[in-house]
Design goal:
It is built from four helices and 18 strands. The protein has about 300 residues and is mostly beta strands. It has one domain. Strands 1-2-3-14-13-15 form a six-stranded antiparallel beta sheet, covered by helices on one side. The chain has a five-stranded antiparallel beta sheet with strand order 4-18-5-16-17, with no helix packed on it. About 45% of the residues are buried.
Length: about 300
């Protein structure tokens, strides 16, 4: 197997396990569908992933679905939620993205470190290519691209919690951060949806297809009010507003759009087979999701990604 990847330095890569907060419920409570007219049975209800080994009574990851458009019944967003008190989220650079002339190639292998594979639960995609916005990224001491002042930033802290907010709000916490990744403007910020989402012309800042289509596959990440529940959403044929409505309905007080388009968005759940040396993908949040059989664990990924580990 290739050498382990560019994770944060040892001093920053293993945040201590934060004491469990009994006030934070996990799985989260069921949430109301944003539009009753298009809601379907199961909308807003969280359920465990039987594909993951572990206690069904105390799941680490749960999933749900929501229909976020007021009249389009087939517009849906699949959701996953993580208990950050019992899992760790890490950021890894791809071998090519984000493009940087500062960090040596040897520090960006595009893999989950070999020492952490036995705890691997899931992988989900990172953000845009560098040429599509030059959004900043840092892992440990490695600054791949500098931060943009008003970009939305998904940050991981030393105590295991997460922050999603504009860089101006995240910057004061820099000494406590182990990694951060920037995106287009926040979809949801401090409980309020971005007003630019209401107009197609300004919503294009969250990206469109090569053909200029706004309704495409999109992914997003968000945090609840406690900062202890991480939410991931991915939808087919959705606008940025659809994605924001879905994330807000699910409980995200702040949410950032990650990458877009069919080839670059993914959420993969792994299991460690008893007789195999490497974990295997056993579930994808959407039925059709492009991924390599050994990508992230032995075949290097060209783009940055997030991975989720069971806490020790």
């Amino acid at each position: 197997m290739p050498a382990a990847s560019a994770s944060p330095p040892a001093s920053a890569s293993a945040p201590p396990v934060a004491p469990a907060d009994p006030a934070v419920a996990f799985p989260p409570a069921a949430f109301a569908a944003p539009y009753e007219r298009v809601a379907r049975p199961g909308d807003g209800v969280w359920s465990g992933l039987p594909e993951l080994a572990g206690s069904a009574a105390e799941p680490l990851v749960v999933r749900s679905v929501v229909h976020p458009h007021p009249v389009k019944r087939f517009t849906s967003v699949a959701l996953a939620a993580f208990d950050l008190r019992r899992v760790e989220v890490r950021l890894a650079a791809g071998t090519a993205e984000p493009e940087s002339h500062v960090v040596p190639a040897g520090r960006r292998t595009g893999l989950v470190p070999a020492s952490e594979l036995s705890r691997l639960l899931a992988v989900f995609n990172g953000g845009f290519q560098a040429r599509h916005g030059h959004y900043g990224m840092r892992i440990g001491e490695d600054l791949y691209l500098p931060p943009l002042p008003e970009s939305c930033t998904f940050a991981l802290t030393r105590d295991g919690s997460a922050i999603v907010d504009s860089w101006s709000a995240v910057a004061p916490h820099e000494p406590q951060l182990i990694a951060w990744r920037q995106t287009p403007p926040c979809l949801v910020q401090q409980g309020v949806m971005n007003p630019s989402l209401e107009r197609d012309a300004t919503a294009r800042k969250w990206g469109v297809s090569i053909e200029g289509k706004l309704e495409i596959r999109r992914s997003a990440v968000g945090v609840d009010a406690s900062g202890q529940v991480l939410l991931f959403g991915i939808g087919e044929e959705v606008t940025p507003k659809d994605l924001a409505v879905a994330m807000k309905a699910a409980g995200a007080v702040s949410s950032a759009q990650l990458d877009i388009n069919w080839s670059y968005t993914r959420f993969l759940v792994y299991r460690q087979p008893e007789a195999a040396a490497l974990p295997e993908v056993v579930f994808t949040l959407l039925p059709k999701m492009k991924h390599g059989r050994k990508e992230y664990v032995s075949d290097p990924a060209p783009r940055d990604f997030f991975y989720v580990l069971r806490k020790q």
